[in-house]
Design goal:
Layout lengths: L4 E6 L2 E5 L3 H17 L5 E4 L6 H12 L9 E4 L1 E3 L10 H8 L11 E2 L8 H15 L3 E5 L20 E4 L2 H7 L12 E4 L2 H4 L4 E6 L5 H9 L17 E5 L1 H4 L8
Parallel strand pairs: 2-11, 3-4, 3-7, 4-6, 7-10, 10-11
Antiparallel strand pairs: 1-2, 5-9, 8-9
The protein binds 2-phosphoglycolic acid (PGA).
Length: about 260
């Protein structure tokens, strides 16, 4: 049945298939709202990308209606490109500022992201890793890449990895080319929280929509936990909610019969 938790393959992983992307975004926003309204100083981990676009819109709407208060909240981004330049509109810190933070009155100092333009990238990775670990993110929103990546942890990433500089897979650069003037403008490198860093968050909420994600979703949820499918690392976490539309769920046991 659409819209209800269909099954729990293990006690900690809940999969919900919603009828469309708007309902899915609403359910994700419900989870964010429930977390933020029951936590004194919410520490919210956010992803960027197409899967979370409607969630951002929904959060802005709720904030305008007074249902959500970002005043005491802090936001932590999963990743960002290396070398784009601090004012580039596709820098994830700028994307989240433009699409969400500025509309919900979040103090810009409370929006945290790895700085892909830092002079010493190794030092920046260790600074951001320490910050995220010390801050104890309560709820982490995640997408899944077509190749099974989680944040910018591409296939081959160690399951115990920490924040570091990574090389983007060609399929990731191709998928993200739609946000740049041309495919050659997509950076080759990024800083990403590692798979172990991400698993430190209290609750993981994974969003995936569209048929292009169906294979990766099946592998991540039903396959073995493996570096080949970094998103399979969510199976190691004690509390995970996966929100899918029917197309993304189609190849799983949660999809339409
Ligand atoms: P998307 O990306 O939401 O733009 O599909 C998800 C991801 O790459 O993690």
């Amino acid at each position: 049945m659409v819209g209800k938790p269909l099954s729990k393959p293990s006690s900690h992983l809940e999969v919900i298939v919603e009828r469309d992307v708007f309902t899915l975004a609403r359910t994700a926003a419900d989870l964010v709202q429930a977390y933020m309204s029951t936590t004194g100083e919410p520490r919210l981990g956010l992803a960027t990308g197409g899967s979370v676009a409607d969630l951002y819109r929904n959060l802005v709407l709720r904030s305008r209606k007074g249902w959500l208060d970002f005043g005491g909240a802090r936001i932590f981004l999963l990743d960002d490109y290396v070398g784009l330049g601090r004012s580039h509109p596709q820098r994830y810190a700028n994307v989240v500022m433009t699409r969400l933070a500025r509309h919900v009155d979040l103090d810009p100092h409370r929006l945290h992201a790895p700085d892909g333009d830092a002079g010493d990238l190794a030092e920046e990775c260790s600074r951001y890793e320490d910050l995220v670990c010390r801050s104890e993110v309560g709820l982490q929103i995640l997408g899944i890449g077509r190749n099974g990546h989680l944040a910018f942890n591409e296939p081959g990433s160690c399951l115990e990895s920490r924040t570091r500089v990574v090389e983007l897979a060609e399929v990731t650069r191709a998928d993200n080319a739609r946000y740049f003037p041309g495919p050659e403008d997509v950076p080759f490198l990024a800083i990403t929280q590692g798979l172990a860093t991400i698993r430190q968050a209290g609750h993981l909420v994974v969003l995936a929509t569209g048929s292009s994600k169906a294979r990766a979703v099946r592998a991540a949820l039903q396959g073995p936990v493996t570096s080949d499918i970094p998103a399979s690392a969510v199976q190691l976490h004690p509390r995970v909610t996966v929100l899918l539309d029917p197309s993304a769920a189609a190849l799983t046991r949660f999809g339409p019969a």
